[in-house]
Amino acid sequence: MKFTSILRRPRLPAFAILLVMLPALAQPQTSSQDQLPEMGTAAQAALSLEDESRIGRMVMRNLREAGMVLDDPEVHEYIQSLGLRLSSLAQDGNRSFNFFVVRDPAINAFALPGGYVGIHSGLMLETRNESELAGVLAHEVAHVAQRHIARGLEAQSRANLMTTAAMLAAILVGAAGGGSSDVTMGAITAAQNMAAQAGINFTRENEYEADRIGIGVLASAGFDPNAMPAFFDTMFRRTQLGPDRVPELLRTHPVTSNRIAESKDRALQYPPVNAKDSLSYALMKERIRVLLVSRSGDPRDYYKALGDNEADLSLAQTYGRGLSELYGNEAGKAVVTFLRLRQQHPEVMAFHTALGQAQLATGRTQDALETLEHARVLAPRNVPVTVRYGEALMQAGRAKRAHEVLLDLFNNVPPTQEQIRLTAMAANAAGDVADAYSYMAEYHLMGGDLMLAINQLELALSVPSITDQQRAKFVARLKEVHEWLPKERNRSKKPPEGLNSSI
Length: 503
What we know:
Oligomer: single chain
Radius of gyration: 24 Å
Order of helices and strands: HHHEEEHHHHHHHHHHHHHHHHHHHHHH
Helix content: 55-70%
Mean pLDDT: 80
Number of domains: 4
């Protein structure tokens, strides 16, 4: 049976309006006399945590379909690790956070309902140190932990909330197609009208609160608490150069001189911190730089401008130059670069994975396998290492082993959507078609598309060769998904009653 993924192909995006409007639709203005609690609670918001997650997943699905999410294992591992380090200190243990990088040169960041926090690639490249990046993340984490979006929608019914979510999805889909249709313009007009009534930006009180909590989180995590006001101050100074130089971050998070002054005063209440940048921060900045340029130009040009003398380059810049060689059709040179880096710094897993990628690109598949097998010994279940090893196994024609390795990671480490998709591809190539369908069901569940998940589970159940154990597992999962469907959509299709259900 041929494995058929229902994963939609990416479409060309135009998402600037959504990123500005998402907080707009969710944030009515409040009086300066409003007393905000120390931390948001479920009782204080119209949205349940599950409602928030559902909306967040829907928006994320559209971002991903449009190719806006940077699905790179190394970059994701770094930003997720940094984000979780901060969110663990935000006093919101009932919520899971998901951090990701957006393919966009704009200097911006945003928080979605459900704990999704996006950092634009342009912002990450603009930060001068890791504390500044952590400061932006801490600010967005505070918005999520305080449930600012949910609290702003207290006065609206749940039906209106879901309508708003559906409208956001319509704007995303329409914008991805060019934003010229009457339907799209109608949705945008409706959204603008709602925004005018509710208040366009995060309220002043919400921004001050996110600053206050974020600075505390920043200091508790060992970063420089002065970094947050310093970065906003730098961005604010650009506004003096004219409206065309205003960073997107300041459009979605309005900054005043009073707000900057207050945040500086608050940061001074904490002991001085001599925070040193991690090597991972520097490496991932270079990786993002190369990945972005490689889609539209030659990434080698940037590093050629730095000079030919490697002694003048930092360790991270040398890594970046190696990546520029890899993505600039000079994989042989990249192998030499990464061999040297790995020899000098065997503890840095990014050098192992880059070397493996370069060896694969030169056709040295066995060398790549040996490189990544060694890395797995040094760092068992490291996500980038395991994913790159799985890719190498697939290229070597060892799909069965790839399925085993990726499934072990899937069962022990919270996966990303791309990890799940790769696991599905490995399972299908290995002939484990039913499992492949079930993995694609999980892929779509993570993306918030329950109907596509149901379709994949039904395909899994239709495979003649499935075992009784597989059938029981798929049926149980199918029942769960049906229970999650809204009642109005569930009426047309009842969940299976037992193991012998017709599909």
